[in-house]
Amino acid sequence: MKLQPDKYDVPSINGYGPGWIAIDGQKHHGSVVVSSQGEQFDWGATRFEDLNEGHFAQLAALDCEVVVFGSGLRNRFPPAAWLRPLMERRIGLETMDTQAACRTYNILAGEGRKVAAALLLEDAQAPSP
C-alpha cells in the first residue's frame, strides 16, 4: 500500500507491502526502527520470537516519549520483562500490527511528537505460531 501523508519535516513511512517498508522513499526489506528525531537503524529480528529485552533497550536509548511497536503480521504483546528499559526511562509503548504501526507513527510524527516506530517485518508467507 502506498501512503500519501502531508509534507513532513520528519522521517515518514510512505509505503509498505509484503516484505518491505519505505521510509522517505527508501525501501527496507528487514525490521527497522525510525524516529521523528531522525534516527534510523536495522532492528535485527525477523520473527517475534527473535526479540528480547536487548531490542527494547535499544529503543529506550532513543530520545522519544512514545514507541509504536509494530509486532508483525498480527498484534502480539511483548513480555513485561522486555519493557523494563522503557519503563525505567518513562517511555510509553503502543503495540499493534506493523501496518497499523506505520500509519500511527506518521500521524504522531506529523503532529510533532517525539515518537519512534519499531517495525517487525516478517515474511508474509511464514506461518504464524
Automatic annotation (TrEMBL):
SUPFAM superfamilies according to UniProt: MTH938-like
CDD domains tied to this protein: Xcc1710_like
Top-level taxon in the UniProt lineage: Bacteria
A Pfam family of this chain: DUF498
PANTHER family: NADH DEHYDROGENASE [UBIQUINONE] 1 ALPHA SUBCOMPLEX ASSEMBLY FACTOR 3, NUCLEAR PROTEIN E3-3
Protein name, per record: Mth938-like domain-containing protein
The organism of origin for this protein: Curvibacter cyanobacteriorum
Origin organism lineage: Bacteria, Pseudomonadati, Pseudomonadota, Betaproteobacteria, Burkholderiales
